Amino acid sequence: MENTINYNREDTAKQVAAHLLRIEAIKLRPKDPFTWASGWKSPIYCDNRLALSFPSVRSFICARMVEVIKNDFKNVEVIAGVATGAIAIGVLVADALNLPFVYVRPEAKSHGRKNQIEGTFEAGKRVLVIEDLISTGKSSLLAVEALRVAEADIIGMLAIFTYEFDQAAANMSLANCQLTTLSTYSHLIAEAEKQGYVSAEDMDTLAYWRKSPDTWLG
User: Fold this and answer.
1) Contact, 134 vs 140, CB < 8 A?
2) Residues 57-62, mean pLDDT to the nearest whole number
3) What is the pLDDT of residue 7?
4) From 12-16, 71-75, 109-113, the region with the lowest mean pLDDT
5) pLDDT of residue 76
């Protein structure tokens, strides 16, 4: 892998947020909230898989992930994508770094070889987990646990975007997993206000929701 390179994390965070807003991978609807699979009401919905349909955006995200890895995770030996959202971007990153790739299902298959991890690596290899989105972090950490059971040496997790929930930070800390993200909820709403996606009133709603997403009712 190449030597450490310099890049501007703040600029990257702003640019990623701007790209995700532009292609509507992130939608903001403070007055008409979404309902997440968890049942939570939310003024925001994020589907970073849409970035794959835009060559310039997926290339930008991949390039920035590669920069982060060359700076912060220089000793990585295997890239692991979390199924399904991070499989494609994980493959792009692994290809750019000429590294092996595996992906991790939420649970083992009930048929065939009953794999949870697809692909192969040697026990003790240093693995970086790639995610597309971090909410509470629980589903992402299931992948980390599966890899650890397979005797991987997890050196951290790199994601495109995080909602910055306190619960996610606590879960990552408890699992002893270093989390790095390209962009954050704070950068997103700042960019949304700057570009006129939301009003000042909406900004208040978006800020309030992030503090207590599990009890917010819209």
Assistant:
1) yes
2) 98
3) 66
4) 109-113
5) 98
Q: How far is it, in rounded angstroms, from Cα 83 to Cα 146?
A: 12
* Mean pLDDT of the region 150-165: 97
Looking at the chain, the whole-number percentage of residues with pLDDT higher than 90 is 85
Taking residue 176's Cβ as centre, other Cβ atoms within 10 Å add up to 9
Rounded CA-CA distance 85/133 in Å is 8
| Dihedral class, residue 179 (left if φ above 0, else alpha if ψ from -120 to 50, else beta) | beta
**What is the CB neighbour count within 10 angstroms for residue 45?**
15
Contact in structure between 158 and 168 (CB atoms under 8 Å): no
* Length of the chain measured in residues: 218
- Counting beta carbons within 10 angstroms of the beta carbon of residue 22, is it exposed (0 to 12), middle (13 to 18) or buried (19 or more)? middle
Residue 115 pLDDT more than 50?
Answer: yes
CATH code, residues 9-210: 3.40.50.2020
Residue 112 pLDDT greater than 80, yes or no: no
Query: Can you spell out the DSSP letters for 59-104?
Result: HHHHHHHHHHHHHH-TT--EEEEETTTTHHHHHHHHHHHT--EEEE
Distance of CA 53 to the CA centre of its chain: 17
